[in-house]
Amino acid sequence: MLNIYCDESRHLENDGNNIMVLGSVKVPDIEKKEIYEEIRRIKEEHGLSTWFEIKWTKVSEGKLDFYIDLIDYFFKKSSLSFRAVVATNKKTLNHEKYNNGDYDEWYYKMYYLLLDTTTPPINEYRIFIDIKDTRGGAKVKKLQEVLCNNKWDFNREIIKDIKQVHSNESELLQLCDLFIGALSFYHRGLYDSGTGSKAKKKIVEEIIKYSGTTLTNSTIKSKSKFNLFIWNPRKRGY
User: Fold this and answer.
1) Which residues of 87-116 are buried (b: 16+ CB within 10 A; e: fewer)?
2) What is this structure's pTM?
3) Could you tell me the fold of the domain covering 2-233?
């Protein structure tokens, strides 16, 4: 059994942003407890409470060493992997033509792109998604339907369950928040600007160094540790 922890950034239709980032962290269920304990140990080594919530918005000069150690831990821990979809040019989408006039339909297509590659039918999966709004229950039900139907998994033998959790209950969900925050920061141009946080720029640099990617382009599909797909509607006729 593999657990997948998913989070999203700038995912609302009219939030004024031109990109959306969806991310997932995958781990064998049997190692989950050990990983939680190791992450909490890193927190304590930096004088933080084990309840301290890992968040991109909390990255600062004062906690920079902690976040760098956390990234180092992720890339050295062989059982952890990350995949993200960065959807660009969100404001130019033609939903009437391609998504039956429905932004949510496009949203589910992006989630499908995120999860289909990382859930081959050789394993069983439980998927956990950060609670964002009151519509989450219906969205989760629809997402499981989309994923299972595309895998002919009508009896839910592959995608066993998808449910919502609060991010403060899961370090792995928080780790996902850190990575998608860095990707959003980079693709909104803040990494190259003169106004972006120096601490956050350093985190992006660490991710680029460890992942071996520029974050600008998609990685090859088979890259499992840090997999990135840049979705651009202009290249796909949207």
Assistant:
1) bbebeebeeeeebeeeeeebbbbbbeebbe
2) 0.90
3) Nucleotidyltransferase; domain 5 (3.30.420)
